[in-house]
């Protein structure tokens, strides 16, 4: 469940707010028994019971070592809320409240009860609620069983006490009417999920590699929230409305650091899961609208930046990953810098002509990038090395499952690293 097991059942889109109250748990198993036994193996059982040779007035009284539990709220593998750790308790009481804005496609809500151990977080068990129980909007409250593998069948089964209520986005007045910026004269931005903020600034930078005289006058529309799920939902709505829309997304080829390390592989794994989620939403929208000839990459594409470098030995080449963050507006200088040319169709980025041309040029640059021969690249924009199926499934590009030269799987490898190391 979540990160630890495959979800089952029908997935529904939760787009709105979750009001969650995590109260307490009872009868949790002692997950620290193994840790305590290992400690005794190294220190000697019963040794050093007193401090500095002082006698112990109660030699038979021993401190009970048990779990240090906390709860993570997970939607489709994403942690959206987390309680504090209660030290040394099998019946912890958190009584914590969370108000979470969500836009996730899920089949169940999962509450991962974990033990905060010295060797890393260990899963105690999972309490789950099918999404169908909360979508009507009623308060769901009570004790829920915590499923897991426990070694003491004589002990009562662990349970988690919680309450949860779902409120769809269309019932939120902030979304329905927007938030007024200037009193009654301006109601704000309608159909915007997050409230308007005054005093924000946007800076657009002219690229240093573009000649000073090349500054096309490009009009910029009002920006929307580009959280991945929101972007995928926007594309799905455009498909339903039969309106042309295409998203071109540039990401680093790999995160900052060595892509072969466990932490980087975990980040790449969840990046791949995010891509898959977005393409799945788009593929489902195409299927519902009967657009059988369309492909998800007609609407969404991921790219990365790279260049070929010649070392001091002219017979060898190396690859460079340009992963510094860059801020660009939708203007012609972006195309000129990254593709080394300006085409008329670039003025209509939503058109199929532009999508196909950019993808072909990005594909050609990737081919040059990975070629054993030194071949000049036309610009820096390359396709991100993944293969997207028509149904939205994402897999590695055949023959390029790992990054050139440096190694590390493109779509990463899932591990049991604590969330704090990769989020």
Care to describe what's here?
This protein has 423 residues and is an alpha+beta fold. The protein is 20% helix and 25% strand. The chain is built from 6 helices and 14 strands. It has helices spanning 33-43, 173-177, 228-240, 262-288, 332-339, 352-370, and strands at 12-26, 69-75, 78-82, 93-106, 108-117, 120-130, 140-145, 159-168, 247-250, 300-310, 317-321, 381-383, 386-388, 394-396.
Question: What's the helical proportion of residues?
Answer: 10-25%
Please state the average pLDDT score. Answer: 78
Radius of gyration: 27 Å
Overall outline: globular
What is the strand tally?
A: 14
With strands numbered from the N-terminus, the spatial order across the biggest sheet is: 4-1-8-7
Amount of beta strand? 25-35%
- The separation of the N and C termini measures 19 Å
Order of helical and strand elements: EHEEEEEEEHHEHEEHHEEE
Structural class: alpha+beta
Low-confidence stretches: 1-7, 45-62, 311-317, 322-330
What oligomeric state do these chains adopt? single chain
How many helices? The count is 6
Report the sheet with the most strands, covering strand number, pairing sense and barrel closure.
Answer: 4 strands, antiparallel
In brief:
The chain is an alpha+beta fold. The protein has helices spanning 33-43, 173-177, 228-240, 262-288, 332-339, 352-370, and strands at 12-26, 69-75, 78-82, 93-106, 108-117, 120-130, 140-145, 159-168, 247-250, 300-310, 317-321, 381-383, 386-388, 394-396. A hairpin with a 2-residue loop joins β2 and β3.
């Amino acid at each position: 469940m979540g990160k630890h097991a495959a979800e089952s059942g029908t997935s529904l889109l939760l787009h709105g707010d979750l009001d969650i109250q995590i109260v307490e748990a009872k009868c949790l198993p002692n997950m620290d028994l193994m840790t305590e036994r290992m400690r005794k193996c190294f220190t000697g059982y019963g040794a050093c019971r007193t401090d500095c040779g002082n006698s112990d007035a109660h030699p038979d009284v021993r401190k009970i070592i048990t779990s240090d539990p906390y709860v993570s709220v997970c939607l489709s593998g994403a942690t959206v809320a987390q309680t504090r750790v209660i030290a040394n308790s099998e019946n912890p009481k958190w009584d914590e409240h969370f108000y979470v804005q969500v836009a996730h496609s899920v089949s169940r809500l999962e509450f991962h009860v974990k033990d905060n151990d010295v060797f890393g977080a260990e899963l105690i068990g999972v309490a789950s609620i099918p999404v169908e129980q909360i979508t009507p909007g009623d308060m769901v409250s009570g004790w829920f069983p915590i499923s897991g593998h426990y070694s003491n069948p004589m002990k009562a089964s662990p349970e988690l006490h919680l309450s949860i209520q779902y409120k769809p986005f269309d019932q939120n007045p902030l979304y329905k009417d927007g938030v007024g910026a200037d009193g009654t004269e301006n109601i704000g931005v309608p159909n915007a999920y997050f409230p308007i903020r005054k005093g924000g600034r946007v800076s657009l930078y002219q690229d240093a590699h573009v000649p000073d005289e090349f500054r096309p006058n490009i009009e910029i529309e009002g920006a929307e929230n580009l959280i991945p799920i929101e972007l995928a939902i926007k594309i799905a709505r455009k498909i339903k409305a039969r309106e042309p829309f295409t998203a071109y997304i540039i990401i680093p080829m790999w995160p900052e650091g060595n892509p072969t390390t466990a932490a980087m592989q975990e980040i790449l794994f969840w990046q791949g899961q995010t891509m898959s989620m977005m393409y799945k939403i788009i593929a489902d929208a195409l299927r519902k609208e009967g657009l059988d000839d369309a492909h998800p990459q007609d609407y969404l594409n991921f790219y990365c930046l790279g260049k070929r470098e010649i070392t001091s030995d002219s017979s060898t080449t190396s690859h460079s990953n340009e992963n510094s963050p860059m801020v660009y507006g939708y203007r012609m200088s972006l195309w000129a810098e990254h593709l080394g040319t300006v085409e008329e169709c670039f003025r209509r980025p939503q058109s199929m002509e532009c999508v196909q041309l950019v993808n072909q040029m990005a594909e050609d640059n990737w081919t040059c990038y990975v070629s054993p021969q030194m071949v000049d690249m036309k610009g820096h924009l390359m396709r991100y090395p993944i293969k997207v199926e028509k149904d939205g499934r994402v897999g590695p590009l055949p023959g390029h499952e790992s990054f050139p030269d440096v190694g590390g799987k493109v779509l990463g490898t899932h591990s049991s690293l604590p969330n704090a190391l990769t989020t």
